[in-house]
Every structure is written in structure tokens, then in C-alpha cells.
Specification:
This protein has 278 residues and is α/β, with parallel strands linked by helices. It has 7 helices and 12 strands.
């Protein structure tokens, strides 16, 4: 008998104990500790999923920065790992293989919300993303991409603001608050061991309840507006057919035929944000 397929998308900013960019940037000194904390928290989620569904196929998408953070050799060997970039479905790669539920582990609130730990949307190059006029962070973007594939988001772990952001979009989802935000780089955090224990239990509950949570769908075409930090990135983006400059120097607009296409466009702008023109 084969069980359900469960995808776990793992980011780093919403992992317990982590509050500062020195802990999430691969070039900075505290990053190696954060990789271990992230891997341990994902392992707790895998354990919880398999307690609910021992025959589940568990797929983990590494979804922070370069998408190469989780330590493959320390990950629960019953899971398979999606690693590296770029990839069309970005933070939720694996959905295209078919899944029954999506769990968001270590997630953070959207740019401009808060106070929330390390709140941003996709990268520092992006100031805001709006789908049909509605400000949407990584939680909303990934949840609606999942909805495009008919997959519900059943769980999120992160700070209190990230948890509220998902509950606002998906009222039936289970949330695990592993820290309470005091600011962009400050929080009252649970001990990692305690966070892992709560996440394990919540994952079991969330997977058992998955049939009660509807996918978050946003039918196409979808009007996407992205405010960018650098006007130079806007110049680059308007070289792409279909991408236009909105009134004001910092906003790019385009239309996605569906949510998967809208998401690819946002990912492209993030990549362009790393290029210095000329
Ligand atoms: Zn991240």
C-alpha cells in the first residue's frame, strides 16, 4: 500500500533560535549552527508526518537562499530532498510531482509586516509583491502555487506574525509559533528542542486533518506588481517581453496566465535583482 505524498518546504528565518542575518547568510559566521537547527526542525516535522501516515512519501524542498542549506546526511533518511536552484517552482519544487499536503517549516512574515523576525519577500531586492492588488509574501505566494496544483497548506511554523499570516489565508491550517517577534532581529524564542517537539506533534495533527483544509486557489490571469529596491533592476526587468514599468520608477508589472507562471516571473525579478547592469 502506498500512502499520501507530503511536501515539506523549509525556510530558515522562522526556525527557533534564529533572529539575525548573521545566522541565515551562508557567508556569515553563525550560519553553520543555523543549518543544523533547520535540519533538526525539519526532521521533527518528518517524524510527525510519518506518525500520522507511516506509508507517506515525504519530500523536502530546501527553500532558503541558495536552496542548499539542509545537511543531506543528517536529514531523516526516509525523506527525499529537493536541493539547488533555479527551479520553476522555487520554494515549493516537488509539487509538480503530485502531493497531498504541503507543510511550511521555518517560514517568515512578508515584507512590510511586523514587527516580525527577518520579514521580507523573496529577497532584499524586493520591497513588495501584489497579486491582483493584494500584498502577498512568501507564505501567500507558495500557498497559492500549491493551490494551483490542488494541494492544501496544512501547517506552518515560524514566529507569531508568520503564523497569523497563514491563518488569515488558510483558517483551517495548524500553526506552530516557535518564537514571538520583538522586532526585525529580536524575538522571545522557544528552546529548539521544545520547538521540535511541538512541531512533531502539530505535523501529526495537520496531516491527519488534511482533508478538511481546502487548497488556496487564485484563478488566472493574475496581475502581478512587484516593487523593487533598485530602479536599475526595473530597467533590466523591462527588457523581458510582457514586463512593464508602472508609473513610478520602482514598480514592474506583468500578467501570469496562472499562479505557476506568476511565480516564475517573481522569481526572475529576484534573480535580476542580483545583477548590476552595464
Ligand atoms: Zn529564507
Amino acid at each position: 500500500m502506498t500512502g499520501p505524498t507530503v511536501l515539506i518546504s523549509a525556510d530558515m528565518e522562522g526556525i527557533s533560535g534564529i533572529v539575525h542575518p548573521t545566522e541565515t547568510n551562508p557567508d556569515r559566521y553563525d550560519y553553520d549552527r543555523s543549518r543544523r537547527l533547520m535540519t533538526a526542525e525539519v526532521n521533527a516535522a518528518i517524524l510527525g508526518v510519518l506518525e500520522a501516515e507511516p506509508d507517506a512519501a515525504v519530500l523536502v524542498a530546501d527553500a532558503h537562499g541558495p536552496f542548499r542549506n539542509l545537511l543531506p546526511e543528517e536529514l531523516d533518511r526516509r525523506a527525499r530532498l529537493v536541493r539547488g536552484q533555479p527551479r520553476p517552482l522555487g520554494m515549493v519544487a516537488g509539487l509538480e510531482l503530485g502531493a497531498d499536503a504541503l507543510l511550511l517549516v521555518g517560514y517568515h512574515a512578508r515584507a512590510g509586516s511586523g514587527p516580525a523576525v527577518l520579514a521580507h519577500t523573496m529577497s532584499g531586492a524586493v520591497l513588495d509583491v501584489r497579486l491582483n492588488g493584494r500584498p502577498t509574501g512568501e507564505i501567500g505566494l507558495n500557498a497559492t502555487v500549491a493551490g494551483r496544483f490542488g494541494v492544501p497548506v496544512v501547517l506552518l511554523s515560524g514566529d507569531d506574525v508568520a503564523c497569523a499570516e497563514l491563518r488569515d489565508l488558510v483558517p483551517g491550517a495548524v500553526t506552530v509559533e516557535v518564537k514571538h517577534a520583538l522586532g526585525q532581529a529580536a524575538a522571545v524564542t522557544l528552546h529548539p528542542g521544545e520547538a521540535q517537539e511541538r512541531l512533531r506533534r502539530a505535523a501529526t495533527t495537520a496531516v491527519r486533518q488534511r482533508a478538511q483544509v481546502p487548497p488556496l486557489t487564485l484563478p488566472g490571469p493574475i496581475d502581478v506588481e512587484v516593487d523593487l529596491y533598485s530602479p536599475a533592476t526595473v530597467d533590466l526587468a523591462t527588457l523581458v517581453p510582457g514586463f512593464a514599468r508602472a508609473p513610478g520608477a520602482r514598480t514592474v508589472t506583468f500578467t501570469g496566465r496562472d499562479m505557476a507562471e506568476a511565480y516564475r516571473g517573481v522569481q526572475l525579478l529576484v534573480q535580476l535583482g542580483q545583477i548590476k547592469p552595464g
